[in-house]
Amino acid sequence: MEVISERFHVVADLDADTARRIATHLELTADTLESLGFYVRQPELPVSVIVFDGEEEFGAYRVGTDARAFAAYSEDRLYIAIAWNAPGDPWQALSHEWAHLTTDFKALPPWFREGLADHLSLARGDGLEPVTPTNLVNALLSKYWLPIDQLLRAGDEDAARRHEQFYPQSWLAVSWLAETEGLPVREITPYMLQGRLLASGMHELEVQLRAYASELQLRAASSRSARRA
User: What's the whole-model pTM score?
Assistant: First the structure.
């Protein structure tokens, strides 16, 4: 099924309604990120979005051992590819990959690149706070953490990059910086966390990040209670 919108050319091994919803979702994501100052780095549109039904079909194109989606670009084209019926939320995965295309992601350290993409994938327009992903927060509160220094040093091929807490901790660190620095998220840089580490030490920095994770859990619980009231 093919759907063409203002920015996207969706080719999906799915039904027509889902393909149209994918295009609409990406258009809304692009609008939200543009409102925050994040635009595609190259002007060539539409972006090709290739949606495979499952991981088996996607496997031949997979980038990374466990990725269910990826973003890429050539000299004249931008791409997003995704396995639709795979573990996790496909809608957030689409937004995550679009976020990569709005940043110079190859020049960023992995923790900041992935943490920023997750943070932006949960962003909402009109100055609203980002959505709090309860799955990430619960993972942070229930499992051992990757040491902060290993998180910051991890390269794309390092074992730390494949640690189960790499994505949750990366998202948490970027979200914490975005909230505590008092700056637009567009102005947040990876050097800010390194500065915090030098100022307070690894143990104190982890204490602060864990406290922030607990605070986010309370906010999420309060939001759910308010919706039920």
Answer: 0.90
